[in-house]
Amino acid sequence: MRKWTRKNLSKVNPENPISSVCLFIDEFSDFNDTETGIATVLLLTSLNYKVVTAGHKVSARTFLSKGLIRTARKK
Predict the structure, then answer these.
(1) How far apart are the first and last CA of the chain?
(2) Fewest C-beta atoms under 10 Å: which of 3, 37, 38, 49?
(3) Per-residue pLDDT tens listing for the chain (75 residues)
(4) Where do the domains of the chain lie?
(5) CA–CA distances in Å: residue 3 to residues 9, 21, 31, 51, 75
(6) What's the pTM?
């Protein structure tokens, strides 16, 4: 998903948006649910919202989903 947004976000964002939306791309949407994330971007831009992405590294969400709270805190 990150790769897709780097290549396509500037092409699909509207010229005169009504507002901006910050999209958080976690590990699940980046690798497993890519189609859903892309569909979300396309929906938001078609509704005339400018989509920007949060500039973050690892979110530790995968660790939290497995109950590894200590490891998630370290990340």
Answers:
(1) 21
(2) 3
(3) 889 999 999 999 999 999 999 998 887 787 888 999 999 999 999 999 999 998 777 677 777 777 878 877 777
(4) 2-74
(5) 10, 19, 10, 15, 22
(6) 0.75
- Largest interatomic CA distance in the chain: 44
**Residues found in the chain:** 75
* Pairing assessment for the beta strands 19-23 and 49-53 based on DSSP bridges: parallel
Identify the burial level of 46 via C-beta atoms within 10 angstroms of its C-beta, where 0-12 means exposed, 13-18 middle and 19 or more buried: exposed
The residue type found at 1 is: M
For residues 72 and 27, give the distance between their C-alpha atoms in angstroms, rounded to a whole number. 13
What whole-number distance in Å separates Cα of residue 7 and Cα of residue 2?
9
